[in-house]
Amino acid sequence: MAIIGIAIASPFAWLLRTDDPPVSDPTPLIDACRALFPNATRNPSAPGGLELVQAGGDRGLCVYGSIETLSNLDAALIRSRRFSSIILRSSGGPVRPWLFFAESLPRRPRTIIVDGLCASSCANYLFPAGREKIVTEGSLVVWHGGPINDVTAFERILGDLADEDRQAARLDFLEIGERSEQLYRFWGVNRHLLSDTFGQAPSYDDILAATNHSASQVVGYAIPPDVLTACYQIDGLERMWHPGDSTEVVAAGSGLFERSWLARLPAGLADRDCAH
C-alpha distances in angstroms, 175 versus 9, 101, 147, 182, 268? Predict the structure, then answer.
């Protein structure tokens, strides 16, 4: 916890600039990461880890598989200035390790590369960090939200908890929410990306496209890059691949999730002018 306190107290000077050149071709970095993490390459939900690679003249940090905890060595690696790109292939994991990861970066990565999947905490806490984002063809960035520092959001999402669990859960939600918002402010990203995708029903168009599923089975949202920029001010998305309309998003997610499905937009977002 003391380490996390130091990270929060930093002035986030790393966010201001990096002089590393952009990644022209992510393939060598991706190939190097896949060689190190064969299990996570087959299944992004498999137990994973962090490793440095150098390929194609670029220095990268592989973050492959589900990240459940971070060791002291992991923390030291994250704080090092030995990489300019982060390569992601992960279904995510618990909020706190990923949030600590983002808080501990010594500077804003020049490039975030998504190889196959970046979902849940991966999308919340690492995807927005890069100045440039490369999402390779066929890859998906999947949002399903997270806490913000807002009691109303807590009540909407977790308000039905039993009384004996409610106070602790509320404090945890708001504390994580405040730390998340601090990162989002420095990135210039709208915090409501977290609340708009947390426990929300899919849009009408998505429900029509998912003929074999119910709205309650939606696992997350593959939001198009133009909507991420217009509604939430996420920049650097010129090289972000996206499946397309609701039917294409549902089809793209069909091989990833059992007994659940992937939607394009939550209903509340679909009704806003910025989403059109």
Answer: 15, 16, 9, 11, 25
